[in-house]
Amino acid sequence: MDNDAICCFLSAYIILEQFMILFRRRRYVLYLRLKDNVQTKSLYCRVNLKIPILVRFFCDEDTKPDFRLSRESLARLLHLLNQDRRHGWGATIETLVFLFWLASGTSYRVVSRVFGMPRSTVHSIVHRVTEEVVDIRHQVIHLPKTEEDLNSVSRGFAGLAHHRAFVKAVGAIDGCHIRIKCPSGPHGQCYRNRKLFPSIILQAVSDHQGRFIDTYVGWPGSVHDSRVLRHSPLYRQSVYPPPGHFILADGGYPCLQQPLPLITPYKRPLQGVGAQRFNNHHSKARSIIERAFGMMKTRFRSIFLQALEVHHTFVPHVSTGLVFQFVQYLSIYLSIYLSIYLGHNSMCHPSQHLPWSR
């Protein structure tokens, strides 16, 4: 019996030793994947590889439940940021922390527990990566820069409206309220909108596919949409749309010809069948901006369905980061769709100058 017990003990010990070797090898492989360049970078900090969210990410599992973005969108975001970290946690980990905070809408304390890092570090990472995203936003959120892109947008709006009269429409504009915590002080009530909750206004223009091509954010929720428009760079600079084209807007905006051509629906009561038919076609084309806001709110519902727990001066940067993530996700989705069903890629690299602003 003693010999049998010794043999069983040795067998169990050998199996356990082999298991520990495989476990250490797997953990080492994960550690190497966390490092961008092992030969040139010194070890500043060690990432805890037992954290479930990092294990799921580096084991090629689905990233949408944790970060609300596909793996292709994450890869493109890391490529656009292209930040070479000489110290700290590395660009990959910092981007994951930022995206998890953005996707979950939770506090810095919860994010610090999820990633196993100090709360002050999470605060610094979120603010730093947000500033980096804001700096590169024009690489994703931009106006049509070629005649081909402009004609594509025009034909798209004519198709949405089901009428050739809208072939000169090159955008749809609207505003969206982002919930915030009411700022303290005498001016806090200025942020309460008509629905009686504090917010900051995000004005956006989308193309016929629901991709945002221009954003302007920062005004308190009590300000009217027309006032926000008059102070926006889109209105003051008069760069877009080009001559002969116009942007669709709802009844909250004025119908303008200069400096920004805006076409709004007829006011009620409607006079005649022609006005009613025009409003119907107008609504079909303009509703793409409302659907774009709806898709963005669904993608980042934790941010839009509760108040942002940050200072109200930081909300415009967070809002721009949200639009950035949504546009790059939608761009990848549309490019895959077009490449499969239409046989070409819709992601183009336009020229540097607008043809109508030279």
Mean pLDDT rating: 78
Task: List SSEs in N-to-C order.
Answer: HHHHHHHHEEEHHEEHHH
Major sheet summary line: 5 strands, mixed
Rg, Cα atoms, Å: 26 Å
Please count the helical segments.
13
Silhouette: elongated
Cα-to-Cα separation, first versus last residue: 94 Å
Low-confidence stretches: 36-43, 332-358
Number of strands: 5
Helix content: 40-55%
Q: Compute the number of structural domains.
A: 2
Q: Name the structural class.
A: alpha/beta
Lateral strand order in the biggest sheet: 3-2-1-4-5
Keywords: Hydrolase, Metal-binding, Nuclease, Nucleus
InterPro entries: HARBI1-like, HARBI1_dom
Family: Belongs to the HARBI1 family.
Pfam family, one: DDE_Tnp_4
